[in-house]
């Protein structure tokens, strides 16, 4: 502990003056380094100088004892003193300032006249008593200083800890008045002026007295903070400070919703961390796709990925994002086909509180806002209604969004990657897709060819999928035999890599050795099922085979949706019961 007499210099000077006035003698006080820190009379000039170790002060400091030198120069204590000969003192008292065993300094009283000497010696006992009291006073000042120094140190440590947190933190009293906060809090809410004692409800309007009133357990609030054109979407945790069963206030901490989502994504699945190296394939076609994607990742321009279902469009979009400068921010994906048009609008753009009946309290943050500074992946863009296409076009042109029920536009910085398995050009010709939007999206087009056009990729994909699913299913399958592999190579893979994954997953489940055999594969692969685009027009395909093919196509198309069978049956124009009967009839395995 670094506290010494010099910390309470002002108090020491006052005490020295008091003693001097009361006793009519000169007073000098030295610290534990024998530095004079206070002095009256002729010692005033000598403050700051060091006193000799061999002086009476030095002896008091080293022995912890009090002395009264009645006859300076003759007293045995003066024997060693270097300035003995020039000493003009008439008497001296020196008394150590002690707290337990630690000596902090010495108080000295000096008489420079016979009168002062008599004064000192006549009241010897009272004097020592008074000096001890003064020493005690100094000690209590030192202890108080130590305490406040410790508190200051503790407070600085705590503030440093708080400032180094990645969360914004603020503490308020039970009426909502701010008393402590960290730098991050000021940063995330862009606060400028001093906020001490200000009401949290005025600064952050998403928190109300109702939120904290009588709150005994912790509570979480999801919020959107909007200030000028700045948007911050986050999560606020409110924790009561309870001392002796009474609520004394609350500590609130704030986290960024994006980072929470990102952390969640990172934790729950490795898929979100896709790199180009995770896109498997050796064909020129896939190499070309990767080359274009690499270029796209270094640009801000909109990317349009086309390809049949299951070719890896989303995988590629994630890899582009992760390889781009935006990788530290969110990748938000939305499937435009999976959400009804009315809902899609609020999913994309969000809405303000009270925008319509049933609008949630606090409003809703749209995907565009969520993806701010990151990437928004608009999957199945071909399924977006003409009405929303218009709105999207405006966002792409203006780089700002209008929330439903919102009064002002919000600036956004989002990189768009769109994807579709539809022929957008054809849709444009048919008036189903806005031409202007098509050109806005198609800045950097990347087409992923279907798997059947790059069969050489199948080997490495199969190997990759076996490893992935073996691990996932906790099985020890490591290879596939040539008969099974040949069937896989022959199969047309309308569902592309997703279908290949399903088949291999099925095979691994069925397999009871370390090698997948033909018998482990689903029935659909074992029947003669040839697809030849060149002579497709001449070949007559039995109707049953066509039917089977369309059923498989429909199953694959709707596989990842809820109620997939119902959707497939609807698309095929048959009932669900008929679909199940046909699955049985054609021995189509489907989960
Ligand atoms: N080249 C590849 N390497 C490794 N895995 C792949 C590859 N292509 C696709 N996949 C895998 O296939 C599955 C389907 O991919 P993804 O969902 O990206 O396809 P998609 O084209 O977006 O499909 P849809 O159009 O139906 O949404 C995923 O599990 C993905 O990991």
Automatic annotation (TrEMBL):
InterPro entries: AAA+_ATPase (IPR003593), AAA_lid_NorR (IPR058031), GAF-like_dom_sf (IPR029016), Homeodomain-like_sf (IPR009057), HTH_Fis (IPR002197), P-loop_NTPase (IPR027417), Sigma_54_int (IPR002078), Sigma_54_int_dom_ATP-bd_1 (IPR025662). Residues 279-509 form the Sigma-54 factor interaction domain. GO terms for biological process: regulation of DNA-templated transcription. The keyword Transcription applies. SMART domains: AAA. This is Sigma54 specific transcriptional regulator, Fis family. GO terms for molecular function: ATP binding; sequence-specific DNA binding. Keywords: ATP-binding, DNA-binding, Nucleotide-binding, Transcription, Transcription regulation.
């Amino acid at each position: 502990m670094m506290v010494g007499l010099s910390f309470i210099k002002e108090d020491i000077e006052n005490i020295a003056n008091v003693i001097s006035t009361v006793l009519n003698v000169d007073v000098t006080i030295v610290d534990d380094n024998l530095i004079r820190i206070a002095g009256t009379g002729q010692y005033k000039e000598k403050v700051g100088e060091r006193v000799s170790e061999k002086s009476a002060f030095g002896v008091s400091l080293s022995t912890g004892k009090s002395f009264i030198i009645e006859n300076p120069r003759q007293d045995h204590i003066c024997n060693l003193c270097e300035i003995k000969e020039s000493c003009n003192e008439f008497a001296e008292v020196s008394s150590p300032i002690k707290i337990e065993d630690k000596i902090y300094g010495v108080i000295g009283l000096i008489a420079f006249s016979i009168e002062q000497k008599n004064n000192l010696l006549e009241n010897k006992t009272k004097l020592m008593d008074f000096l001890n009291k003064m020493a005690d006073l100094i000690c209590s000042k030192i202890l108080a200083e130590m305490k406040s120094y410790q508190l200051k140190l503790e407070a600085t440590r705590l503030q440093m800890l708080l400032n180094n947190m990645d969360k914004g933190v603020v503490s308020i009293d039970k009426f909502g008045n701010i008393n402590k906060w960290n730098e991050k809090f000021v940063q995330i809410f862009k606060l400028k002026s001093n906020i001490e004692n200000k009401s949290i409800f005025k600064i952050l309007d998403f928190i109300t007295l109702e939120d904290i009133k009588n709150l005994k357990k912790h509570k979480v609030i999801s919020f959107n903070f909007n200030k000028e054109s700045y948007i911050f979407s986050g999560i606020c945790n409110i924790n009561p400070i309870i001392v002796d069963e009474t609520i004394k206030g609350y500590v609130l901490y704030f986290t960024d919703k994006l980072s929470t989502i990102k952390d969640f994504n990172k934790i729950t699945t490795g898929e979100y961390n896709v790199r180009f190296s995770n896109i498997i394939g050796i064909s020129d076609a896939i190499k070309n796709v990767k080359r274009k994607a690499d270029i796209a990742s270094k640009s801000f321009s909109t990317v349009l990925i086309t390809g049949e279902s299951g070719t890896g469009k989303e995988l590629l979009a994630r890899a582009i994002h992760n390889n781009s400068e935006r990788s530290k921010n969110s990748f938000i994906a939305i499937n435009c086909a999976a959400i009804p048009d009315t809902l899609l609008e609020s999913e994309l753009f969000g809405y303000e509180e009270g925008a319509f009946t049933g609008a949630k309290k606090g409003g809703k943050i749209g995907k565009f806002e969520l993806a701010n500074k990151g990437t928004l992946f608009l999957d199945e863009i071909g399924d977006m209604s003409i009405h929303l296409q218009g709105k999207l076009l405006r966002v792409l042109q203006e780089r700002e969004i209008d929330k439903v029920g919102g009064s002002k536009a919000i600036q956004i910085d989002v990189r768009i990657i769109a994807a579709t398995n539809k022929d957008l050009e054809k849709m444009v010709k048919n008036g189903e897709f806005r031409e202007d939007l098509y050109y806005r999206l198609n800045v950097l087009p990347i087409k992923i060819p279907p798997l059947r056009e790059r069969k050489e990729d199948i080997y490495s994909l199969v190997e990759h999928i076996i490893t992935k699913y073996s691990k996932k299913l906790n099985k020890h399958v490591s290879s596939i035999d040539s008969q099974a592999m040949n069937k896989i190579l022959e199969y047309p893979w309308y569902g592309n890599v997703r279908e290949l994954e399903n088949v291999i997953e099925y095979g691994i489940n069925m397999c009871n050795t370390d090698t997948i055999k033909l018998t482990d594969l689903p029935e659909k692969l074992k029947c003669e099922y040839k697809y030849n685009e060149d002579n497709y027009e001449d070949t007559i395909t039995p109707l049953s085979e066509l039917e089977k093919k369309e059923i498989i196509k429909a199953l694959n198309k709707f596989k990842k949706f809820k109620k997939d069978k119902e959707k497939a049956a609807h698309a095929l124009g048959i009932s669900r019961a008929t679909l199940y009967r046909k699955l049985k009839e054609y021995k189509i395995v489907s989960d």
